[in-house]
TrEMBL record:
Its EC number is 1.1.1.306. Residues 12-360 form the Enoyl reductase (ER) domain. The keyword Metal-binding applies. The keyword Oxidoreductase applies. It holds the Pfam family ADH_zinc_N. It comes from Streptomyces griseoaurantiacus. GO terms for biological process: formaldehyde catabolic process. PANTHER family: ALCOHOL DEHYDROGENASE, ALCOHOL DEHYDROGENASE CLASS-3. GO terms for molecular function: mycothiol-dependent formaldehyde dehydrogenase activity; S-(hydroxymethyl)glutathione dehydrogenase [NAD(P)+] activity; zinc ion binding. Its cofactor is Zn(2+). This is S-(Hydroxymethyl)mycothiol dehydrogenase.
């Protein structure tokens, strides 16, 4: 039987979000219905509301979530009712050219549930944010979007691994290949940048330089493992990073802002043959201009990090285990827990940089 539950809907461009009754169908083949325990408020949800991602209103928002599998459809063997899972937005296909070459974290054909959830009042089909839609009591996803992890973890902590925190940690350990003794600089210390700092520490980086314009954010970055802080409003970040690295620049520079100016800073704050990782998300009108001779002459690697180049089935359980052992402080990313009706106000606080993450708990 299809179920009616509460969900947070973005009805139209820039309109305030509101709670509506939504219809969640029974899971079809390869699908699962998940009872949500917690879901973080991410910038991407705000971008959906603002119409910056697509025009397919109404959206069912929320995508950084953990929950308990309630029911599964035909042919689902990886998860079962009762499993505690983190939802991911890249369920890999196993058959595309990336998957077949053994690089499933690049999967070019990820999938979501085939059936659609609808608005109870009008029957209108909903577009779930990143194929998840977890600001809801329950949601319908592809079973491959569920990754089972140790249920000992707090749900509000676990959910954050589903998006921003994984993107940041993965930018450092998967894309940037940060290793023991490396020097690392992170430009932009919001949730993703701070996670990159935590990832660099986990990987054994010797020096971790946090760069931001907000002193409050730099303080949080320090708690998560930054060894050096640069306020880029007060000093030139390229000069500062070079000074802190013997005049050379950092081995790995992670750009977690997504702007041409900060990317250029990342490019020049990097040592010869070093790596730049772009994990900040730019907007369509942005253009990058760099002397091609410098791109050639400085060598190394310029990489982009999609979802931290993560493989949920490999990375989620491992990072939750490290957290439970006290080696990765995922709890530091949760600024506050809120109720389902607090999402609109949480957007406001996020926009002003007052929180790292607000998390809706159920
Ligand atoms: Zn694939
Ligand atoms: Zn997100």
């Amino acid at each position: 039987m299809a179920q009616e539950v509460r969900g947070v809907i973005a009805p139209g461009k820039d309109e305030p979000v509101r709670i509506e009754t939504i219809v969640v169908p029974d899971p079809g083949p390869g699908e699962a219905v998940v009872s949500i325990r917690a879901c973080g408020v991410c910038h991407t949800d705000l971008h959906y509301k603002q119409g910056g991602i697509s025009e397919d209103f109404p959206f069912l928002l929320g995508h950084e979530a953990s929950g308990i599998v309630e029911s599964v459809g035909e042919g689902v063997t990886d998860v079962a009712p009762g499993d505690f899972v983190i939802l991911n937005w890249r369920a890999v296909c196993g058959q595309c050219r990336a998957c077949l070459r053994g690089r499933p974290w690049y999967c070019f054909d990820t999938h979501n549930a085939k059936q659609r959830m609808t608005l109870a009042s009008t029957g209108q089909e909903l577009s779930p944010a990143l194929g998840i839609g977890a600001f809801a009591d329950k949601t319908l996803v592809a079973a491959g979007q569920c990754t089972k992890v140790d249920p000992a973890v707090a749900p509000e902590v676990a959910g954050l691994l589903g998006c921003g925190v994984m993107a940041g940690i993965g930018a450092a350990i998967n894309t940037g290949n940060v290793g023991r003794g490396d020097t690392v600089a992170v430009i932009g210390c919001g949730g993703v940048g701070d996670a990159a700092i935590a990832g660099a520490r986990l990987a054994g980086a010797a020096k971790i330089i946090a760069v931001d314009i907000d002193p409050r954010k730099l303080e949080t970055a320090k708690k998560l493992g930054a060894t050096h802080l640069v306020n880029s409003r007060e000093s030139d970040p390229v000069e500062a990073v070079r000074e802190m690295t013997g005049g050379f620049g950092a081995d790995v520079v992670i750009e977690a802002v997504g702007r041409p100016e900060t990317y250029t800073q990342a490019f020049y704050a990097r040592d010869l043959a070093g790596t730049v990782v772009l994990v900040g998300v730019p907007t369509p009108e942005m253009k990058l201009e760099l002397p091609l001779l410098d791109v050639f002459g400085r060598g190394g690697a310029l990489k982009s990090s999609w979802y931290g180049d993560c493989l949920p089935s490999r990375d989620f359980p491992m990072l939750i285990d490290l957290h439970l052992q006290g080696r990765l402080d995922l709890g530091a990313f949760v600024t506050e827990t809120i109720a389902l009706d607090g999402v609109e106000e949480a957007f406001e606080r996020m926009h002003h940089g007052d929180v790292l993450r607000s998390v809706v708990t159920f």
